[in-house]
Amino acid sequence: MEKAINATDGASGTTKANVPIMETRGLVKRFGSFIANDGLNLTIRKGEIHAILGENGAGKSTLMNMLSGLLAPDEGEIYYNGSQVSFTSPRSAMEIGIGMVHQHFMLVPALTVAENVVLGIKQRSPWFRLSAACAEIERLSASFGLDVDPRKRVADLSVGQQQRVEIMKTLYRGADFIIMDEPTAVLTPPEVQDLFRVLRALREQGKTIVFISHKLQEVKAICDRVTVLRLGKHIASMPMEGTSPSELARLMVGRDIQPPAVRQPPGDGAKLLETANLSAWHGGIQVIRDVTFDLREGEILGIAGVDGNGQRELCEALMGLGTKHAGSITVRGRSIEQPSPIAMIASGVGYIPEDRHREGLMLPMSIGENLIAKQYRQSPFSRYRMLSRRAIRDAAMRAVQAFDIRTPAVDHPAGKLSGGNQQKVVLARELMLRPDILLAMQPTRGMDVGAAEYVHRRLLEERERGCGILLISTELEEILALSDRVAVMYKGRMLDIIDRRHADAEQIGLRMAGL
Q1: Which of 220, 253, 286 is the last residue of a domain?
Q2: In this protein, which residues make up the domain named ABC transporter (predicted)?
């Protein structure tokens, strides 16, 4: 274990005063026998953007939940503006100026921005007027460059605009210390730049931002200082200036991260999956337009593109998930007239969905129950229509070990795992089936660099086995690192399919913009 590094020099940006706003001393949080935070000592300064890094399960979310009043520590002390504090709820934390913007937004789509912002606030006067709230939201919006219209319905806003509403909620309640959990996970590159502009404006006006992310290049671009956690312990705190992403990755996982090994181009394998003039409609709107491609044995075909250009709908059409379609789908030379999840699974197709919460997992159920969700009718998990709990538990134990799923117990509910460990459960379930074809949508979304490296290695192992993988990712580096051929989706169309050896980031970036 490395010795903790305590920075004594000032961070960049507006942190010259080096005045602490938040400190923790010996903070401990246990869940049964599992220690999520182990004696954490942390200092965050006023007016800085402070990154918290760590692997999935390193204790970041537990720490933030204690700082925002969602959890109470078992041991240790929290100091805010020099005074020891003890929170009984998120409301008590907000009352002294601490707010949190969660990765999964806490908004009511049918309500307006203003109605969402004031929702849950105990009004001091019975004569509350929404018009006054709108005026205050407009003032804050202008002050911090948020560009939020208080009268618009949240359902009509883009994802980036909804995130600004979440930030507005904290500002309206008077927060000076704002925790942001994976704030760029669902944003497009332009929306990320808009968010960074807002965060810099908040910092210039004295707000303190805690920035939790797995994207080291973004952390490097926006943050003043960084703290690294590993296995619940404090590893290092340092200024961001002069620190490289590779050094941060090493501190997070305790070793150097190896890029995917150079590998031979795939041979002329048999065609596993073919589409011809595939089109699809959703809600009466055409979302896929005449997509034609093939996927061969032992090949990774990467599909790059900004979120919302038809990637999700392509996978849903291939899996028969309710999207009306035209054109043909062929698996191993056999035409699939009416694709359905059952038919595609029976044809040897695995599917890692984009949203692990809504589509990938049954959150209240255990790890084992999620792992057998596609095999529960089969031996050894079922005999005489009765589930074998022992077989399910044995499968869960093997998966936890093989896929490094970090959990207090193998019968732990999937919904209580960290996001990266939830993703590992989804991956384990699909690979247990040894598919011939794998549709992998955003397979490393929300994962730390160590977990992402592991997923990349498993995907390459499947490729070597002969599996054909359709890899869909908004992370261009991931596409270029893993793919044998690269296609770009733009407004529902699949643009040129390029051999990876002849593709570069600039070329693909232009196609992602439709050029």
Answers
A1: 253
A2: 22-256, 273-510
